[in-house]
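Format notes (please read before filing issues)

Several people have asked whether sequences and structure tokens are stored in separate files. They are not. Every record keeps both together, in the order shown below: the sequence lines, then the token lines. Line labels are part of the format and must not be stripped during preprocessing.
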Amino acid sequence: MLAAACTSSDGESVTVYSGRTENLIGPILEDFTAETGIDVEVKYDQSSNLALLIQEEGDRSPADVFLSQSPGAMDFLDGDDRLATIPDDLLGLVAADVRDDDGRWVGFSGRQRVLVFNQDLVDEGELPSSVFDLTDPAWSGRLGIAPSNGSFQDFVTAMRGQVGDDATSAWLEGLAANDVQTYPNNNAIVAAVGRGEVDAGLVNHYYNYRFLDEDPDHPGRNHQFATDDPGSILIVTGAAIIEGSDAPDAAAQLIEWLLQEDAQRYFADETFEYPLASGVAPSGDLPAAEFAGVGGLDLSGLEGGLERTQELISEAGLEG
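Then the structure lines:
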């Protein structure tokens, strides 16, 4: 399986549009270049912005690979016929639940939405089973969110798909009425929880693990909502090959690299995500999580898509 990925390719290059930030994906891309000789040129931005850019660029796009924070942006491009079919041997490296049902993208790491809380300020008996409980007056002024952050918007979009726009809008308005505190990103929320600035916040699970790795005395802990609750959504990070790529073989090699054991262990042990390649176990500290049916999830079919999600957040008076 790894023969192709370990072959030197002097002078060859691949252009990646990455919705994953450089600190999370950069080291593994550098390892890919060191091992294969294939240069990687990367453009970083939010997944939604990059998807719109690829659509705008059309056949002129220099992108060969798109790395997206969530399936929604990839489904958007697939609907515009901008994604090529992933080779079957690569699709077979992951379970069917974490790849596109039509073979247009494949998941390589995953994360879960959780409530991070300060264990010195929150009794475990207070922890809610549903994200909807956070509009209760008992949580007034105690919660942090990042409304402008892509992962929060992915989560709200998924909520719309599960409970509808009316219920989602009512929840957002309930947070605003409950004096929710806003931050620019997940890191800022976890730091604020650690300082006691807020008691809890909505984040992706791995951020708090990274804080604990740097400071074992950090008081933040993760709380999982009920399995069927929108607050516990599991989000897959995926890779796709752009239709018409000038370097489809190098693009396939890069995706294969992301799914081989060394890279998967990097995601498990260094970024504290869930590895998605078959046979690779997560870090022993992570609670069990079942990524079921993600490949058939089409959030792009929602009326207004991500743009409508952003409108609902803004209409609720939430600014990041």
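For reference, the curators noted about this record: The radius of gyration is 19 Å. The chain has two domains: 13-110+234-286, 112-232+302-315.
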